[in-house]
Automatic annotation (TrEMBL):
GO BP term, pick one: cellular response to iron ion
Entry annotated with the keyword Signal: yes
Keyword Lipoprotein part of the UniProt annotation: no
Region (Disordered): 45-91
Segments of skewed composition (Polar residues): 49-58
InterPro entries, per the entry: ABC_Transporter_SBP (IPR050902), ABC_transptr_periplasmic_BD (IPR002491), Vit_B12_bind_prot (IPR054828)
Coiled coil: none
Keyword annotations of the record: Signal
Domain Fe/B12 periplasmic-binding: 118-374
Signal sequence extent: 1-29
Organism of provenance: Paraglaciecola chathamensis S18K6
Top-level taxonomic group: Bacteria
Protein name: Vitamin B12 transport system substrate-binding protein
Biased composition annotated in UniProt, kind: Basic and acidic residues: 73-82
Amino acid sequence: MVISWPTRLTTLCLCAFTFSAFTCNIAHALDQVATSEIADIAESATPRAASTESQGHQANGGDDEGRQGNGERLSEKSEDQHTGQAKPAKSATIRLAESDAIFQEITALNKEKRQKLRIIALAPHIVESMFEVGAGQQIIATTAHADYPEAAKDILQIGNYARLQIEKIVQLQPDVVIAWKTGNPGDDLSRLKKYKVKVIYSNPTTLSQVADELLMLGQLTGRETAAEQAATAYTTQLNSLKTRYAQQAPIRTFYELWSRPLRTVANNAWPQQQLALCGAQNPFAHANDDYPSVGLEQVLVTLPQVIIQPTQHAADTPDALNWAKWQHIPAAQNGFIFHPNADKVHRMTSRMLDEVALMCEQIDKARQFYQADTPVSE
């Protein structure tokens, strides 16, 4: 038996359930699919792709304009000491932004003018990163779910993942809009350009590119020093986690992104990168889609040793699967079902790494348990 579900309804429920802009981005991509099918019985652990159209879009961040590099070099000065103008940083994200005439136009301004820009930030992760580089007070409007830090809750909201209030944005007359390339509605972004609104894109697609984002925002707002400090601290923490878990034994881990229908992560998906960082082995890592639908039986036959169930604000999620019912799988049998904070792990910001570090520690505790085949003492 095959079950079909209305994708549009699932899209809306997915966002309402998680309050996570990242998950809303996934839902927005899935909105292109007419239906998704889940097989009750699968002969192997290879999941059915949710969308053949969205896999390249999610993996590559859209078209060439949205692709970004590795962001390894963080130490070069990014401000001319004589003119106060932004100097090019050597990351692929910055090179991408500099190819845009609008970015070049703005960063040609002196620091004082850039620090007074009136900015609309169209995603929670952009808002959070702008506050981190010290430019939070420059934000005049944002979208729903931009709730960190606390001051972000006071910012005017002019839309959500599904629709932007174009007229309101135009009325606010921002100096620049920072849009989320794969998270905001493409037709709305096109309308903004028709109104001659200046739009710059944010689109981190790898863990290392969070540092690139910080550098880009620092250049844009004349806060290069703070941005370089934040980017360097982030990269140092990321490299530390890579070093700590790179040689650890793999441990079979299932990531429950969404429960109804059951959906997981694969390939270049943001959470898949986090699993790889922790040395976790995802049975569905090489699925045809970055966010595949899977059948319950497909998960059970993999005998996951760990199950990751992100929850909102670390609270229990009513609709999440109760894996304890299947005591034959090691994760349920041994109590290795973990619930990281969805807002933290699903937003492309520095704060994400703290939650991922905790998730890695939990996975490593399970790893030690299985290696020793005895309970780990508290």
